[in-house]
ABC transporter ATP-binding protein
Amino acid sequence: MSDPIIRIEGLDKIYAGKSGSGKEDVGSFQALRQVDLSIERGEIFALLGPNGAGKTTLISVVCGLASPTRGTVWVDGFDNVKQYRDARERIGLVPQELTNEAFETVWNTVSFSRGLFGKPPNPKHIERVLKSLTLWDKRHNRLMTLSGGMKRRVLIAKALSHEPRILFLDEPTAGVDVELRREMWEVVRELRDQGVTIILTTHYIEEAEEMADRIGVINNGEVILVEETNALIEKLGRKQLTLQLFDPLDSIPDSLATFELALSDTGEELIYSYESSSKQRDSSGISTLLRALEAAGIGVKDLHTRQSSLEDIFVDLVKERA
């Protein structure tokens, strides 16, 4: 395996508080705590966390927009403090909001972004970027005339104008409709297929579940978990088996006390929760439960299962660390 394209070691970020005079320290806030994280080349990495968890601060430090209090960040092998320019030119950052002049054209605003990184003009590259984002026909349009979805694409085009190897997407589909969100997902996948490493923050759990190769969960400034998406769901996910009964129960018999069962309000359903696993036959104990139900004289007329979603797992993780 090649070296990670981003490597973070022992990263702390503390914001010091000051009194009105600016001389007296009246408290501080630690936004990041001992963050260790590696991002692999060519992957889509989703960073999840509640508001105030430290997502934006972490991105700001990696992109060189904020200085770390302690720790080191390497971007494609370059120390992003000591070798700032080399590190920063490898990063494209897509913010949530379009900040350019509304009267500027798509072509001019994307070309201008390239120049900000000291890159010589390259109309062919700008053309490739605009065509890949379905913006070529809009290249002469002023930004104020574009739809919300097209403006989002312009943000990505600006970030790609200087040919970065890494793309940060901060809430890329916030506030857009479902159809446009799926279009944006396709754009991100195509960029990954072209060799761009994608790091995205999102509040949409299904976005991370659908797109990310790996997921990191951050809370209170700490990265509490990093895992491959599918492995995370399999390892931490739980399943629920709902059994519809022929005859309602008033209570769960003592003979079933060893099983993790709950009775519905109507008494017509039993809900069995168990760990999901594909490595061990009947590791769930369902066969044993069904035999126990039969022995207790409880008839089952139907049953169905439900797998924990990534959202369930995320909520549980954050609650544990609260």
